[in-house]
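During the reporting period the student researcher (J.K.) took over the structure-prediction task from the postdoctoral fellow and processed the backlog of single-chain submissions. One of the processed entries is reproduced below for the supervisory committee.
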Amino acid sequence: MSEIIFKGFPARAEVTPLPNIFFTEVLPGIENLAEAKALMQIWFLLSRRKGYPRFVSYKELINDPVLMKGFFSLPGKSGDLLGEALDLAVKQGILLHVPIEAGGQHDDAYFINYQAEKETIAKIVNGTLKIPNINIRKIEETVREQPSDIYNLYEQNIGMLTPIIAEELQEAEHKYPADWIQDAFKEAIRANVRNWKYIHSILKRWEREGKKDGKHLGDSQKERDPDRYIRGKYGHMVQR
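J.K. obtained the following structure tokens:
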């Protein structure tokens, strides 16, 4: 906790407006402190932004000294905390996310989830609204289309495997068809939620409700070699 004591607000302090529904419906559901800090700073930045469209980029946020100072007191690396906070805000529907390429480099744009911003994003995506020096990035391309085992998908799109995650991946690979797993990874990446818990929740939903192509789990399952990963390079991480 900071030892600096706040001296109080001056008589004519500038104000950052927030919709009442933020305090009644959004704030009570935020449990992650990094997410709360990121959202407050995003609202502050956008309230002072001129022009159209109004959004903030990931690179802008990671280089924001006020926001990063607020993350120093939290456990974990600041960059990881920011990414996780933004992922949560997108998943909860507070922010809207558009993958972009600016100056030849990958970045991400974040909008407050207003109806007007949804319409703006639709115009950006369909090409009727052009933003100078910024292009939409097709994140679906980050999941390879050629057949790939679930371990490679995880390492290519999420990160380093751990023995616990490897066990969970092995169970999912035996249970779900390969095309379901590929599509679940794609859907998670589209939503910018790069974690196995979210991907697994997609697979379980399809198992309950049927996949959007009309197929149910029993229609898609095929026999699998139960030893296929025991013999592979990840054999030391999994069990029969």
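The committee noted the following: The chain has two domains: 20-137, 150-237.
J.K. will present the remaining backlog at the next meeting.
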